[in-house]
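User: I'm writing a short methods note and want a consistent example. For Glycogen synthase, I'll paste the sequence; you return only the structure tokens, no commentary, since I'll be parsing the reply automatically.
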Amino acid sequence: MKVIFVSSEIVPFASTGGLGDVLAALPRALMEQGVEVIRFLPLYQSIDREKFGIGPCDFDIHIPLGSSWFQGTVWKNEWQGVTTFFIQSNAFFERPGIYGAPNHGYGDNFERFLFFQKAVVRLIDEWELKPDIVHCNDWQAGLVPMLLYHGIDGNFRNGREKTLMTIHNLAHQGWAPAEKFYMTQLPDSCYTMETLEFYGEINSLKGGLVGASAINAVSPTYAKEVKTAEFGCKLNGVLYHRQDVLHGILNGIDYERWNPETDTHIPANYSAKDLSGKAECKAALQKVCGFRVNPDVPLLGMISRMVPQKGIDLLFDSIKPIVESGAQLVILGTGDEHYESACRNWADRWPENVCAWIEFSNTKAHRIEAGADLFLMPSEFEPCGQNQLYSMRYGTIPVVRSVGGLEDSVTDYSDKGGTGFKFSEFSAEAFFQCLERALKIYKNPNRWKTLMKRAMRQDFSVTHMANDYIALYRKIIGN
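Assistant:
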């Protein structure tokens, strides 16, 4: 079986979140199961070609966007046994960032990723790759199914490749003005209410949802949620209509990267059999945060994009009672300016209780996962989430809202086999009550240690995810 992945993010080359992690771990796990895998990614300016050994293929491509032609080149890398081809373009990718500034994307993102998608289809033909599945990820690959069928330049292609459209986050849809439709060179039949047209504009993700052979969301609960008005981001009707080919597969994580027994980013290694290193990690984190080093003080961690989806507003309304409870809180992440500013203000106001690292740091993320006692994820919605999975592996107990992948992966402490604490209502009161429940259990060392060990023994490995995808690929091919 040959699978081609099309994505705008892949760790370690370029990533802003969970998409990049999945596109690193899943292809490698599939390769280990005997699947032939090829990945395609834009060659962004920020990608270190020398560090990762990315070299040119001596192959030029010329891609039409409407009546204009754009030139690019193809580069290649072998990383952990997986081949990745990079699409280079001076016009579209030689600029800072992946999508633009943190709070404002590039105005030509539709054109940038249209060029990328057309280049992928061109290379599938030029190189006679003949994949069994083209696995498209999020809106930046949403037009691939239509381009495979109708062609990239107005000449009918009649592509017979099976396609899978994975929804990593339905909120990001790749809208563009209707005036840009001509650039796709797709037939007029592709710009209707049943296809790309959406409230008078182009919706790239919708194109993938209606054009792909099958669809999946990154957790079973999210696959159900996206069919509802509350979580469907206006596309719930489209997904309800295609529910017969809509599936849910929970993301897994790479335990080679996230393993407290071997992690080189943390001060001390530890396991469920020997937790002594966990205490050392906590003391080191308290010290670097400027907190009082005390094993009995609960240390809360949060690693997040600072956007409304992540429930930062609930933290706004809970920060004072959290501090008054005596707990310590360390926050790592970047995002909306007013959230970043608020976190800095909390750290200035309560330096003995709050530390805010407004940055992206892989090392600090590992140290928070290892050093914290509890991990906060009060998300408004969460397609899958991965930090709760990392946290459980590190014996850091998650406090989460019961939505999406958080619902699927965390079992509440009140239930048999509990691994964390969950709340349902999206409110600061419900969030803090849940946290209070967790802190009450934390005060009982024996019960807490039992909870930690149970959480650490959970298995959300990428191998399970790969097996689920292989089963889905076979089903798609069989259909």
